[in-house]
Amino acid sequence: MPRSRRYKRLEKNTISSLVNFAGKGIRQVGNLFSKFFAVCDRKLTIMIVPHSQDKVFNIQTNVFALVFGVIIICGILASFFYFNKQIIGSNIEISRLVQENRDTLASLDELIDENENLLQTAKRFQSSLTQSLALLGISQPAGISQGAANGSDLSSLFSTRDMAAGSLQETTDIKQLTSYLEGAIQPIEQIGRMLETQGTLFSDIPSIWPLKNGIGHISMEFGQNIHPITGQWYIHKGLDFSTWRQGDPIVATANGQVVTVTYDSGFGNYVIIKHKHGIYTRYAHMSAVYVKKGQFVSQHDVIGAIGNTGLSTGPHLHYEVHIGSDVVDPAKYINVKLDK
């Protein structure tokens, strides 16, 4: 038998076998569906029997309808529980948002109160700044001058004519306050520069307490006093500072040059410092001297210690200020309040 014919027969038998197998499979699937639908179409009778003598209720259905009904009921119950859980979660979120809203409103009320306090403080600041600028002779910016002309307060902060529609009054107030403070920067800078210049001037004149850290008290004032040794009236040409002890540090009251370091029977150990503008200061009755003649000192430098040398009844500093040949009251320069 030729080989080609043998191959054709084998191919034909294989195809026939596959067709028969597929046919059997389809028939089996069809039988399964038939049995399934037969089972689903099986009739059922559901009887509801009351406990009383009432009529018995019969409900006729099939398996398919019963299963479908059970599925629908389960779906409804599942949907009910799902949406109920969602509603509970939404209620919790709504409660949280309501609480946050209450907290926000409370914070807003506090912010409004603080804003009002800020405005009141700004009014006091403007009044003080206006008075300070007037005393110093510094010209005021137009915005600040206008505020002063309107009663020395921040009247522009309470004007709503320029307030944008829908904007909060507090926001407008803060913006206008910011604008006002920006205008106040320039005069405050001028005050700073003036104080810096004045600071150099004050360091050149005897304007501080001559004992370090402002310790001690004035035991005798400038002018007419009773001499503690002779008991006679005389003119005291300085101020006496006492701490009731010896050795406390004495400081230079202004920048200058030491011109005298010596001792005599009246002043004991004493130092004279020459300052600008023809001013001299004397420090007497010192127990120790820490500077030398010709030395330059700065304000606050320690130059010696309180002592009891010379004509003295106890440890103290005798301090004098001279302008040229005149002796002046040092209290006018160190700005102290004397005990009468």
How would you sum up this structure, described in words?
It is a single chain. Helix content is 47%, strand content 22%. The chain is α+β, with helices and mostly antiparallel strands and 340 residues long. The strands form three sheets. Strands 3, 6, 7, 8, 9, 10, 11, 12, 13 and 14 form a ten-stranded antiparallel beta sheet that branches. Strands 1-2 form a two-stranded antiparallel sheet. The protein has a two-stranded antiparallel ribbon with strand order 4-5. A hairpin with a 4-residue loop joins strand 9 (268-274) and strand 10 (279-289). 16% of the residues are buried. Residues 147-167 and 336-340 have low confidence and may be disordered.
Order of helices and strands: HEEHHHEEEEEEEEEEEEH
Fraction in beta strands: 15-25%
Count of helical regions: 5
Q: How many strand segments?
A: 14
Gross morphology: rod-shaped
Helix content: 40-55%
Overall pLDDT level: 80
Class per helix and strand makeup: alpha+beta
Radius of gyration, in angstroms, nearest whole number: 53 Å
Question: What characterizes the major β-sheet?
Answer: 10 strands, antiparallel
Taking the alpha carbons of the first and last residues, their distance comes to 154 Å
Would you identify the regions where 5 or more consecutive residues have pLDDT less than 50? 147-167, 336-340
Compact overview of the structure:
This protein has 340 residues and is α+β, with helices and mostly antiparallel strands.
Keywords:
340 residues, two-stranded antiparallel sheet, 5 helices, alpha+beta, rod-shaped, 47% helix, 10-stranded antiparallel β-sheet, 14 strands
